[in-house]
Write a structure and sequence with these properties.
2 copies of one chain form a homodimer. Chain A has about 220 residues and is α/β, with parallel strands linked by helices. The first copy, chain A, is about 35% helix and about 20% strand.
Chain lengths: ~220, ~220
């Protein structure tokens, strides 16, 4: 997080966010919406995963909406929309993460009674989104093998805070000289051996069933 | 950047950073050190690039030092050290970017008279480091083809602010279905057609001569 020199300021920002996240949570719960916050770095495959999961869920008769969070632009939003998802774009302007206030405003644009599942794609960043829960039922962190085998060791906070952790693009691990087992072991150690990171390849379809199960969808 | 509700606070933080960056700049200039800030997302290959460039520069008789910036841990620092670079670790604790104050403190640990080139590896993030110049002579942004072809469109600010832009891992573009020309064209458009992004593969060595030249090393 950015250095905020006045004592108490950082705390106030986080406290305010938690309060609004709590309100979002109850609003989503009231409408029986299963909501998921997808966190993860740039290029980890969050958009492709949301598109693929939405496709599977539509096949089961579920109504899926998504919020595409980005600093600027409409790339992810357009990809989601073209795939058939009811999508809303949410540009943060300058912020490196979504926050509960942005989500509260964006929820006003969504037909909540006509939605079963809401996917929120956070800004590509493995640091700050961890501090700003949005009020979703679950928080997911998606990493890609292309980021190297040290992602868990370098960003323990987000892996601690996420309910579900996914390592994506395992199909190209050999081309980037990454041993997926190192990542899986780091996560296991970090979470005390109780939680297992899901191995996944959105491209080949590997692990998507496990993701659906872990998210309770 | 994080939402800072009190008016003027964001400005103060940035203003203070610019002042310290200015001091760092003059300190490095006084010691005849060529200094480079490597910005870029997680897994873009910043560490590998610094190690490779340092190897080439050592071959030319230059004394290279590096600062490894990370939220936590010593992974990049250790890789640099093992490769023979005089490296200093700089953990930000919770910040998603280095700032000029951190660098000023870290410079105290470096033998400036015994250094010709200083590489600073920023925290993996394509948003916030852009706002916090460190006082280096040049700022570089490194992206990887694995991040997708929309990186320039999604993060115009950092590409505007960097003196040199590099797209890395072009050797595996075909495995991640990315057309490098889309990235190159976006950068050309963004910078008014005057600047060219360097195509590079640290793994194969492609483009490293162009990087050395662009950085004036």
């Amino acid at each position: 997080m950015h250095k905020i020199t006045e004592i108490g300021m950082e705390h106030d920002v986080l406290h305010e966010n938690h309060k609004l996240a709590h309100e979002n949570y109850h609003m989503l719960e009231h409408h029986n919406i299963v909501s998921i916050d997808f966190m993860g770095s740039i290029g980890s495959g969050k958009t492709a995963m949301i598109i693929k999961l939405a496709e599977i869920l539509r096949g089961k008769g579920k109504k899926v909406a998504a919020i595409a969070g980005d600093v600027t632009g409409e790339d992810d939003f357009k990809r989601m929309k073209e795939s058939g998802i009811t999508a809303i774009n949410c540009n943060t302007g300058h912020e490196c993460h979504l926050d509960a206030h942005m989500i509260r405003n964006t929820l006003k644009k969504i037909d909540l009674d006509g939605t079963d599942v809401l996917f929120i794609e956070n800004v590509g960043n493995l640091v700050c989104p961890a501090d700003f829960p949005l009020g979703t039922e679950k928080r997911v962190v998606v990493i890609s093998v292309t980021e190297g085998d040290d992602m868990v060791r370098k960003h323990p906070d987000i892996f601690h805070k996420a309910d579900v952790a996914i390592v994506n693009k395992t199909d190209i691990a050999e081309y980037v000289d990454v041993d997926v087992n190192v990542i899986l072991d780091d996560y296991k150690k970090l979470t005390g051996g109780n939680k297992k990171m899901i191995e996944c390849s959105v491209k080949t379809g590997k692990g998507l069933d496990d993701v659906i199960k872990a998210l309770g969808l």
